[in-house]
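Backbone-to-sequence.
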């Protein structure tokens, strides 16, 4: 038992900080990109169906088909599928920055659907009242849709961030580095049970904190 603890502590001292840094790089880049692109894409999906002045069945069908296509691809396969695109963008196929590309893609389409669902749940009566008062589409988006859907959108963002934590760990198996790579290289290949247990506990704590913060902020925005 003492030998197991000693081995685990030694490995963590040498590898943990690097793994955390690589995971933070992946999360920071992919979450920032998906937060922006996913929110915009979600509004496009909603407005091209439900908007008054921006309705477009063609845009909606094309966008929806693209989102569904990407969502249907398992993440590991998506990583391999996007390798040429990743290399074109960042000049490498391995490392946390390279892994951020497929992470951002999968999180963007995931969040887009959640944002679309959140917007669709806004009370139609509130929207009709705003249109009846002569409010412009942009004003309704900013003052009605965003305000009314904010708690649900924030919960969707929380779910997306938590999913990214899991995907980033998976990215470690294909050269992305980070916590997932630490678990695979030492916990799986070298049978370091202590590392595997630590990794699981560490990720569970991070997810619980993220969920708690997301729920707290969503309640603050509820009215």
């Amino acid at each position: 038992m003492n030998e197991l603890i000693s081995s685990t502590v030694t490995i963590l001292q040498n590898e943990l900080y690097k793994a955390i840094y690589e995971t933070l790089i992946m999360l920071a880049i992919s979450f920032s990109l998906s937060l922006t692109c996913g929110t915009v894409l979600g509004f496009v999906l909603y407005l091209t169906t439900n908007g008054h002045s921006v309705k477009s069945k063609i845009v909606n069908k094309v966008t929806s088909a693209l989102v569904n296509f990407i969502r249907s691809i398992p993440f590991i396969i998506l990583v391999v599928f996007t390798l040429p695109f990743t290399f074109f963008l960042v000049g490498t196929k391995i490392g946390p920055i390279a892994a951020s590309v497929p992470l951002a893609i999968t999180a963007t389409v995931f969040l887009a659907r959640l944002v679309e669902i959140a917007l669709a749940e806004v009370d139609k009566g509130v929207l009709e009242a705003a249109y009846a008062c002569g409010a412009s589409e942009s004003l309704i988006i900013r003052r009605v849709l965003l305000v009314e859907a904010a708690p649900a959108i924030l919960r969707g963002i929380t779910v997306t961030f938590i999913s990214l934590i899991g995907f980033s760990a998976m990215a470690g198996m294909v050269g992305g580095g980070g916590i997932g790579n630490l678990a695979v290289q030492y916990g799986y290949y070298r049978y370091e049970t202590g590392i595997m247990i630590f990794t699981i506990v560490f990720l569970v704590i991070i997810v619980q904190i993220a969920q708690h913060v997301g729920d707290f902020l969503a309640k603050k925005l509820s009215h």
